[in-house]
Amino acid sequence: QKAKEKLKQSRTKPKEPKEQKEPKKQKEQKEQKEQKEQKEQKEQKKQKEQKELRDVKKKRKADKSGSEEPQRHKKRKSEDVPSFDSDSVEPDEPVEEAKKDKTGASEKQKKKKKNEVQSEEGETETENATLKPTPGKTSAPTGFTILGGFENKPVQKVHRVLPQWLAQPDVIHRDIKSNLFPVSDIPGLSAPLVKKLQNNGIQHLFPVQAEVIPAILESAQQGLLIGRGGYKPRDICVSAPTGSGKTLAFVIPVIQVLTERVVCEVRALAVLPTKELAQQVCKVFRSYAEGGTSLNVVMLAGHKSFAAEQASLSELRGGTRRSLADIVVATPGRLVDHINRDSGLSLEHLRFLIIDEADRMIDSMHQSWLSQVVKAVYRSGGGAGAVSIFRRIEPAYVTAASLSPPQMPLQKLLFSATLTQNPEKLQQLGLHQPRLFSSIHSHSGTPTRTQGGYDFPQGLTEYYVPCTLSKKPLLILHFLLRLKLSPILCFTNSRETAHRLYLLVQLFGGVQAAEFSSRLSPAERKKTLKEFEQGKIQLMISTDAAARGIDVAGIKCVVNYDAPQYIRTYIHRIGRTARAGKTGMAFTFLLGVQEKNFLQMVEEAGTPGIQKQIVKPQNLKVMEARYEQTLQELANAIKVPFEVLFKDNLNK
Ligand SMILES: Nc1ncnc2c1ncn2[C@@H]1O[C@H](COP(=O)(O)OP(=O)(O)OP(=O)(O)O)[C@@H](O)[C@H]1O
């Protein structure tokens, strides 16, 4: 057996050298094949691992879908590109976590593994950059890096939050007629002033007056020199409809507080946007100051020469300048002139700064009239020699230290029918702990201001009249001559249109008309307004010069010959009628192209309703021949082609 085995071994032995003799080339091929197989196996393993990861991801998504879906960020486009599915680094953070969960590997190991994978793919990123699991950082097999961070995140809707004082105002009743307060019931009004009101035909106060007058009187309880409790009183803002009696809401308390003054100094300053308004307010102040008080009211609005205004402000007596004015009513331009030219207007004792038509006055703030007034008020206040009680420190940050010394207060009183709700705009006024009185209610009836909402006079009925450009003048004539709606206050968007319409109506005949715009001198405008008030003018054709504040009793009808572009303009224009609880009508002529936008604007402003008023063509027929002839005459007179006579307002 041993011999047999030996023989067997001897037979098999020669085979070894045979194998060794295999060609070198074949061996290399074999090795390559083995390597290839290994690599394939590795690749398969990797793919399998990735598949598992995707499954985990899907499962996680499915689990979370219920509650998280609405907040989930939109998937990046690059994730949807199939070629990136095979990326070794998954872009989503949750997958990273899933990987960790599944393998149970430590964070360090995972980082190492990632680096290895990337180095296989020839990536040259630094460790930190590679490890960042930001969605935008995806290394593609193509060898370039996708820069990211541009995800389409759902933008959260921003809800406007008003400051508390704007959102929760003191409420003013809207209905004038059913909320009247007997004048004698208002606390703080002296008997002579009550008598004066009654003599002027005012037995009851309107809601805005009943709310605001006591509030102003209360802030001046301790006299002129010190605010309530020694502190600066709160500034007051009032937003109430046109014709609701805002003027008396500041005139009465100011007169009441100043009546007790000893030395004549300018203690109240009312600033208004136009000469006409300044004149109107001055008239009201005078009617309550004269006879019964020694208060002097002076107007600085350019009606008189500068020198004449200067003379009415102060006089030199015994070498010292003595104020002749207690109350100054001014337009901003003229006021700044007097401050800058040192005309003898001293505001160092100013107690009330009244800003009427406040939203319009904020718009004109670029003239920096307010900062000049404030500078003039605090001109000598901080001086070391100032007696402590007369000290005035320019408003800055409110601190315990700034509030502690009692000081002569300056209180701002703001009034408007369309007071802005924009806190940024209001901030320009430097208000001190403002208090808002408003008649604007939300639909639920709560005293919260609705966004962009305005209050409309109760007795007003709004209409719109669809028409064509060429028929507009004819419609006005129809309103006057056939419907007998007179007096009419008619608004155009430009003084040229106002002028041409005025000429046309004059030429047509049968109507007492007048124009009111900057084409006229202040004296002419004053005369026109007076005649309109007296009923001598049936149709006053005006630009927006008469849109705000003008109080002419007896205007029953306002016509927007040109549709206003802004809601505030509309509200002020139509507010020239239906004043003081009376009724009135407002018509707006609308071209086809204007209808949609205009109605939407009025709707958003919170109109109680605007009705469509159609004027049938046959109703205009009777006047048509005469009208065409007048148009031709006008075209010849002003040398403007007939067809473009009233077309310029299309673009306005
Ligand atoms: N208590 C009252 N009783 C009767 N009439 C009043 C009373 N208060 C004011 N009026 C009259 O109401 C009219 C409108 O008042 P006022 O001009 O002050 O309104 P307004 O709110 O300032 O309007 P606008 O916002 O258009 O300027 C005036 O003719 C005024 O004399």
UniProtKB/TrEMBL annotation:
MF GO annotations: ATP binding; hydrolase activity; RNA binding; RNA helicase activity
Stated role: RNA helicase. ATP-binding RNA helicase involved in the biogenesis of 60S ribosomal subunits.
Top-level taxon of the source organism: Eukaryota
CDD domains for the chain: DEADc_DDX51, SF2_C_DEAD
Record protein name field: ATP-dependent RNA helicase
One Pfam family linked to the record: DEAD
Name of the top EC class for this enzyme: hydrolase
Basic and acidic residues: compositionally biased ranges: 1-55, 96-108
PANTHER family in alphabetical order: RNA HELICASE
Keyword terms of this UniProt record: ATP-binding, Helicase, Hydrolase, Nucleotide-binding, RNA-binding
Reactions catalysed according to its record: ATP + H2O = ADP + phosphate + H(+)
Domain Helicase ATP-binding: 227-437
EC number: 3.6.4.13
Region (Disordered): 1-144
Compositionally skewed regions (Polar residues) per UniProt: 128-142
Record family assignment: Belongs to the DEAD box helicase family. DDX51/DBP6 subfamily.
Domain comment quoted from the record: The Q motif is unique to and characteristic of the DEAD box family of RNA helicases and controls ATP binding and hydrolysis.
SUPFAM superfamilies, alphabetized: P-loop containing nucleoside triphosphate hydrolases
Transmembrane segments: none
Occurrences of domain Helicase C-terminal (ranges): 475-623
